[in-house]
Here is the input.
Amino acid sequence: MSGLLIAIGAIVAVLGLGSVGYGIPVKEFSFGNTLIVSGTIAVIGGLIVVAIGAAIMQMRRLAEMLAHMSVQPVA
Here is the structure.
């Protein structure tokens, strides 16, 4: 699941960069400004999703590591 989140976030971030790049030449019109703003939001949203995917991956590794630890009773 974390790999899927990372992949989707990366795709959204790249598409957002494409939207910003496409909107820069048409900046004088409101359509270009809208593309730049929405592209920036998509880039930031994609990076957030990538970070959430990475956090889930680390939490899963931590949970597996804790599951394999043996708990010894304190005497």
Summary: The two ends are 41 Å apart (CA to CA). The mean pLDDT is 90. The CA atoms of residues 40 and 53 lie 20 Å apart. Residues 30-68 form the longest helix (39 residues).
